[in-house]
Amino acid sequence: MVKTESPLMAKMRALRPAMEAAHEKSTREALLEHARLGFDICESRDGKVVWIPPAEVFARYGLDEFGRPLPPATT
User: Fold this and answer.
1) By C-alpha distance, which of 67, 48, 45 is closest to 57?
2) Which of 28, 32, 38, 60 has the greatest number of C-beta atoms within 10 Å?
3) Domain that holds residue 54
């Protein structure tokens, strides 16, 4: 028996990349907002809860320790 995909499922599948991009952007914005307020962020690493300081959150997104964009590299 061959099952065909419904139009709704096809539409949802087509929207998946946009939904994932929106989720990634909103997560980044929330983490950076908390870090700019000086709050640590908790996450799970190897099954344990660890607290991430704001400077590490900024570094994860390519920012300096105060949350500002890094200056362009000179060569």
Assistant:
1) 67
2) 32
3) 38-64
